[in-house]
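Q: My labmate handed me this sequence with no annotations at all. I'd like to see what the chain might look like in three dimensions before we decide whether it's worth expressing. Could you predict it?
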Amino acid sequence: MKKRTIIDLFEESVAMYPDNTLLLEKTNNEFMPTSYSKSKLIAEQIGAGLCSLGFSKGDHVSILSEGRNYWILGELGIFYAGGINVPISIKIEESSELLFRFNHAEVDTIMVSSRQIHKVRAIKPKLEFLKRVICFDKLDNYQEDEFFIGDVIEKGKNFL
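A: Here is what I predict for the chain of 160 residues:
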């Protein structure tokens, strides 16, 4: 019997319910739906965008964000790219604790919300394996090796 992965289960759901709503997110006081098929497309584009930035199978990623659609789509994108997700709680406030977890897990990519990016920037020079930071929100200024998720998706479209 073949082992089934999260991606296998997700793709089975996409095949059965392509037009059904998978995700809802409030935008401008209105909940906006994202279908299974649209979610799959975006997740594949995120995965391809990661690959276009030098991400490789087996690389380690942490998502440091409040719950949102990009949290789910980002994790699926990680799996499509063959990556490993290293769970991190946004409740961790101590820089030393985040530093230890990121370095111990050899995290080379961090996906982060604008509300949490200050935690990453505070320890960025000490992160031994970090190659890229992907922000789920548009920022006014990006530091070296920081990318907006929308730009990663565009890179993914071109990469595919």
